[in-house]
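Q: Hi! Curious about what Efflux RND transporter permease subunit looks like structurally. Here's the sequence.
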Amino acid sequence: MTDQPTLGVSGRLAAAFQASAITPLLALVALLLGLFAVLVTPREEEPQINVTMANVLIPFPGADSTEVQNLVARPAEQVLGQIAGIEHTYSVARPGMALLTVQFQVGVPRTEALVRLYDVLNANQDWLPAGLGTLTPIVKPKGIDDVPVLAVTLWSRDAASALELERVAASMETELKRVPGSREVKTIGGPGQVIAVALDPARLRARGVDLMQLQQALQAANLAMPAGSVANPAGSGLLAVETGEFLKSADDVAELVVGVHAGKPVYLREVATVTPGAGQPKHHVWYTPGGDAGGGAYPAVTVSVTKKPGENAVDVARAARARVDELRNTVIPPGLEATVTRDYGETAAEKANKLIQKLAFATGSVILLVGLALGRREAVIVGGAVILTLTATLFASWAWGFTLNRVSLFALIFSIGILVDDAIVVVENIHRHQQLTPGRPLREIIPVAVDEVGGPTILATLTVIAALLPMAFVSGLMGPYMSPIPINSSLGMALSLAIAFTVTPWLALKLMKSGGHGHAGHDDAAAHEAPQKGIAGALARLFSALLRPFLESARKRWLLLAGILAALMLSVGLAVVQWVVLKMLPFDNKSEFALVVDMPAGSALEDTAAALQAMGAYLVKQPEVRDLQGYAGTASPITFNGLVRQYYLRADAEMGELQVNLVDKAHRDDQSHVIAQRLQPELQRIAAQHGARLKVVEVPPGPPVMSPIVAEVYGPDEAGRQQLAERLAAEWAKHPDIAGIDTTLRDDAPQAFLRIHRARAEALGIPAAVVAQTVAGALSGLDATWLHDGRSKYPVPVRLQLPRSAQVGLDALLALPLRAANGQLVPLSELVRVEQGVIDKPLYTKDLQGVSYVFADVKAGGATPDSPLYGLFGLRGSLQTAALPGTGTVGEYWISQPSDPYRAYAVKWDGEWQVTYETFRDMGAAYGVGLILIYLLVVAQFKSYGTPLVIMAPIPLTIIGVMPGHALLGAPFTATSMIGMIALAGIIVRNSILLVDFIDLQVERGMAFKEAVVQSAAVRAQPIALTGLAAMIGAFFILDDPIFNGLAISLIFGIFVSTLLTLVVIPVLYYAVNRRRLESLQLSSSKE
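A: Let's find out. The predicted structure is below.
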């Protein structure tokens, strides 16, 4: 028998599995589990993030903003602050209403968060005293699943009214809710069906009827109820009795007797005009197709569909679209268009299919690379290992709870290059051993070859995992958003290692040609010293010529070090001189963007619609615009961005949005960000003509923020805060590269106060509440009762209200009669006096501190780089310029609010800066933790404190490739670039481990230290180059993605430069550090 070397864990595993019958079964199971995961894993465009917010609305009718803040908002914030897991609490105190927003920490499950919220609210119901005038708090929770995956806009070129469209939409809602996985189906737009009772003050007074009497008459007449039963005279049993009758039509309402005057009944039609139909519009929604030269604004409504948590967005959206198609010409009448204006399921499927295609191409390219380098059989082995690793990783990803989205798929594509490393190293070493010992049977070669690289391969795999896995603990929105990258990559690396030691040896034994059945007693050390031919010989000569000068001259080693340090400093300097711009994430190429418009406070709904339609008329002439939808006085279907910014609360008449949909990416040259920035100047000009403030809002590439640039203004008093915010906005407007400036300050809007003459009203026996209810009902509408027509999906109110024609000025309102205690009618004008003023402004707090906000963005194409960070730094000087006279220096805070806002005014910077800081802070910490873990792993392996420092020395060398690579391609250094940098730490250390381990192994076998150093680079160059090229090829397929190209650039250029340098620097550095010790040991050993 031949003496076999003692095998380690990897060698024993290879020996056990290379001929085991269970190995192919395990491979088949891994393949089937992967196919199962592909079929069942939900697909969506963005990762699922537990970001739960809840709005708590507390009505306080009649109270001004200050009273609402003091009596309701601040105490409510204190109560809500008891909840565990809260990130921030915000409040807005408006006249008559407190709006509180509870933002939970990212990752707190929605159900758990809401249980905590309701528990605290119910346990503290006594914090608002009874009789204060506040109404029951309303809780409106919001989360990622409230973002619609599908939106269908109903419109017609014919004269279809908004009410007709709304009726069709109401019928569609029921049908769409039947779609499996759908959650909420709702309609945006439409005036609502009402029975409008248009009041005529003169006719009311003439017939001796007032508004409260009409309400009571309608409520009393609209009643039906079971009364019991009597014995049936026609036979046995009981006869059920029901009393009363509901109002079922407008005629029933019009013919209702509401009083008696001069001995005759007074019918409702005699004192008011009763009309069935649409209510007075509180919002307008319209649709304009692209290319419409007239910019026609066709009345429209939009039906939106959300999905249940965990459901496949692609399946839900496709099923909903199919249901819409089935409803055409039935529920949706001919001539009515149903245009899909949002389909996140389709975009998710398109993105997933494209990325799966890239994954296949990347895998094929890596296999082709191995085939060219090692041979066809070796390529098949590596390909099989990669495919099994991918399928097993897909199953592990599904089991972990991830969905198939662009981040998880990018993680797999990015991982291709490192998942293949283990298989390449194992197969290449088997291939090399075959060439070195051609007469030895494969069954004996494989365990030895696997065992030789097993230790460093295990260590190298663990170092890559150690580098990547800490990124899974990044906090904030960015952590869970990017978590599929570290987790899927780490799972894949662990699985690839297992497959490399089990399935790969089995495939090698089956597929690789055996060199013969000669005696296996060849000595590996002698084989290494055998004459090298072909590529191996060329590499030996190359590295001998390249390394020996540095090994033999200390001066040249110092020159090499100086050159590397110089290159390192120049590379870092690229960011200093802004040749490489720092940015959180670049914009993706989306199919939509939005215009958010704010008219001056008090603007009429028609003015808002006119401004939006003027912008729309310009937009539809652009060849890239497919269509647009206008929303005046209401919000469009929200996006993830709108969810965080709370656009769903935009319901005032002076607020509006334009949702702009672009043609398919294949039919336009420019990306959506370029288009939006190109159109912005003209849109700003149109907005200025209408006195509007405009923000061009794009779908953010990552976690959204309130605005790219946010200044939170704190200070001792509200008036000073608002004044400072106003001065800041004025200073920012002078900056040529800043756009989209806005504040939370509200313009002065006129308001008429009807002050009640209390003494006169009390003398007449007219309560103040009756006066207030009469005025509110006449202007806003008083829903006195509800129609029971048996056909409507939603209740149809009978609404008492002054007609629109009478709501011009106060004359008709002041003529309304009210009934005194003696039965006489008194006009409202005798009970009130009119005072002119302005609408009370809202008051804001954040975490119990009063605050005002200033928002802005950076213009594209200006002198400031297209990154909000540089725009923010350019605005810092405005703080002191805008400081209020006599208040001293404005404080500046970057991380948190001022602890004492009462001493001086201060600004806390927020927006993209905050997310960037938190992300890079946590990624930097993860990088540091990764380096520590790598050091500990290498110490454990090499049992030395100095050798790990040598092995880790190439990590900074990645910067020499990464930063010039970004500069060369004109790309910003982003969060994904940082992920690439972190991954490079593990990848490059892998190469160092292979080199150092080889040197130690050959020295242990008796080779001269200097010769072992040269041989390490020559022998390990091929697997190092192969694994490096594989990682670069995998990264190449994500180079064209706007968001993840930073990751690709880091990997491609970082691996290219650092791999070349590693093959020189590590051998030279290891020689320089250990020269005296090892050469003296070898000398003493030779003497013995």
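A: A fun detail: Residues 193-223+244-278+750-838 form a domain with the Multidrug efflux transporter AcrB TolC docking domain; DN and DC subdomains fold (CATH 3.30.2090.10).
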